[in-house]
Amino acid sequence: MKRFHLFSLLLIVVAAAINNTTYYFLIFILWFIILNIGVFYLRSRVFIDGIPRKRIPGKIVLTIDDGPHPNLTPDLLQLLGKYHFQATFFVIGRDASEYPHLIKEICDRGHTIAHHSYRHVPWLNFMLRRGWEQEFTKTHRACEPYIKKKWFRPPYALMSPHLAKVLQSGGYELILFDIRALDFGNRRTENLAKRLLKTVDKGGVVLFHGKMPENYTEFSKKQLLEELDIFFNALQNKSDVVSLDHYLELTNGP
Ligand SMILES: [Zn+2]
């Protein structure tokens, strides 16, 4: 946040020094480009630094965004249990308040609960600081006492200066990812295992989704679970699946 403020201030000083209206437009364009890099590229560090930044070959972390929801969470927990994999669930606060028993079950099975906003709607990124603070308070309340980590992953992987400020003041860590299923919230599940397996050799944090879309069919759910089964099965022979906590310790090392 400080970085972006300093950059904005620098541009204002440059604009004042130049005192030429033609350059004002170019300076604004430059500022706008930097702003967009910060919003759309989570790793940019324009507003805030995220972790982990290193990939460790042979080490994989499983992270599951969205949910919990009865349409997928119990099946996912069963599948993770089959392979004895531990995952971090970045849950939506509103879903957590609707299905508290699923939050409890996730924790009882040794997984970790983390934060992924309360409402998870696209316009969240336009919210000011106060709006974001409410998202955090409500999610925390919905997940208590099971949320133990101050880890956050923003919905749609979008960042804003206001969100960055709330993360910093609340002591939250922005959790990045290296491998994305590109499944559009489980809408595109065909060849999911193949897509994911192509990119696991360098290790890193995998992101996939823990909830089915509203118009899902039994076929699409079956296909997703089969793909995840193939992915997990291949993963156990290729990589060491570790907790996010452990991976962060490893990446903080020399
Ligand atoms: Zn999400």
Automatic annotation (TrEMBL):
Residues in NodB homology domain copies: 58-243
SUPFAM superfamilies: Glycoside hydrolase/deacetylase
GO MF term (any one): hydrolase activity, acting on carbon-nitrogen (but not peptide) bonds
Pfam families documented for this protein: Polysacc_deac_1 (PF01522)
Keywords attached to this entry: Membrane, Transmembrane, Transmembrane helix
Transmembrane segments: 26-44
GO BP, sorted A to Z: carbohydrate metabolic process
Keyword flag Membrane: yes
InterPro entries: Glyco_hydro/deAcase_b/a-brl, NODB_dom, Polysacc_deacetylase_ArnD
Protein name: Polysaccharide deacetylase
Organism: Uabimicrobium amorphum
